[in-house]
Specification:
The protein is an alpha/beta fold. It folds into four domains: 272 residues, TIM Barrel (Alpha-Beta Barrel), CATH 3.20.20.70; 29 residues, no CATH class; 58 residues, no CATH class; 119 residues, Double Stranded RNA Binding Domain. It is 38% helix and 20% strand. The strands form four sheets. Strands 1-2-3-4-5-6-7-8 form an eight-stranded parallel barrel, surrounded by nine helices. A three-stranded antiparallel beta sheet has the order 11-12-13. The longest helix is centred in the last third of the chain and has 17 residues. The radius of gyration is 24 Å and the shape is globular. It starts with 7 loop residues before the first strand and ends in a 13-residue tail after the last helix. About 3% of the residues have low confidence.
Length: 516
Amino acid sequence: MNEKGKLIIFDTTLRDGEQSPGASMTREEKLRIAKALEKLRVDVIEAGFPIASPGDFEAVQAVARAIRDSRVCGLARALEKDIDCAGEALKDAVSGRIHTFIATSPIHMQQKLRMTPDQVVEQAVWAVKRARNLIDDVEFSAEDAGRSDIDFLCRVFEQAIKAGATTINVPDTVGYNLPDQFGHTIQTLLERIPNADKAVFSVHCHNDLGLASANSLAAVANGARQVECTINGLGERAGNASLEEVVMAVRTRRDLFDCDTELDTTQIVNCSRLVASITGFPVQPNKAIVGANAFAHEAGIHQDGVLKSRETYEIMRAQDVGWVQNRMVLGKHSGRNAFRARLEELGTVFNSEAELNTAFGRFKDLADKKHEIFDDDLQALVNDAGFSSENERVRLISLRVCSETGETPRASVVLSLDGQEQHCSAEGGGPVDAAFKAIESIVGVEAVLELYSVNSLTSGTDAQGEVTVRMQKDGRIVNGQGADTDIVIASVKAYVNAFNKLLQDQEETHVQQGHV
């Protein structure tokens, strides 16, 4: 594929996707997703915002050291400390990129930055040059470009390219643009900027009006050759352009697009499941490409047509994005090697024999409860195995609940808190409520439960229930996940998981001074 015919996919699930309230990930979880993205053959992985916290720095550094086939990127404001921090985090990358940004819309320059347009141009040029002293590949973004003056964008982008930016990113930061308008903006920039041919033009669209993917595709049709997107459209507020939607739209409509990606699209569904499982943000059944109903046909006319010729109602093959019969033909007599091999196919690689043994032991327990094990069960099982168990200050030892018609439900919980076994019983409006109250009494941390969600991973009455809880304390929001064939146990696991995250070092709070 020649340079103009290639569409670069820049995945920001680990950075912008993580800015979804409650979607913060541990270093180990980021590594798992990064390796899955590498297997998907994503061109650029934006691993995080290194200056945001020591934890974010370490996560970007770990991804930079682990990834070999994709470029690893770190975000930095147009500030010396940000840029130098990003350069340090990326120094061990086989292929790295610093992504620096500054706001260019009148409202941002006046109200947030308190800078004049001339000062913004000067700072942008300085930032690009500073980054180029550390690394060869520098991307420059004009934050809130979607509401910026086109003449000013032409000016700042021309100067950024002269300073050494190799990628120019045009973000619709607040999801304000419409497709025709955004496409025209890209076309105008490419036509009016004298040195536009010296850089790849990129777009980063938010989904506030539900148009992120449409705006991204309009930009591609008008000459953009990099799209910044996330798995499942994850991201703050209404999310970002969805990787799977953009990639499959371009591939399916080759009659309209003169470019394509180099992704292995058969890995899309596995990536989607992994991200949903780790973040606790389930995929809606009617989500394009990766939703459970995306290739399902219930109407009789549709079923008849598909049986006669798939193309009557399907514009792409389910297998092309990774939908296959996902039943794992393993049981309680299966060995570790078969178990390990299937999980590697799903994008999970164990770092040690101890991790494998923990997960395999849970697989054996699950096989005793369920007749059939599905891939979704395996993803939940691996997450439940606790890849970062050394950070767990709270651990469930045992749970007993009593729920009876006409009687007040009661739960007795035994937890290990900082290595000390503690017991508590409580009553509640139901067994889950009672168990949560008992846990709260033991942990002693006051937090607000903002969300309690139950999702069935597979079909049947023996299906595992996956529970997500969202908790808030002092402005910090975390998600907790748990899975089990017993929904009360799954709920308690999720609640304990959330408390462990709340109890972690408060330095993990992210910088909130700007985003692309």
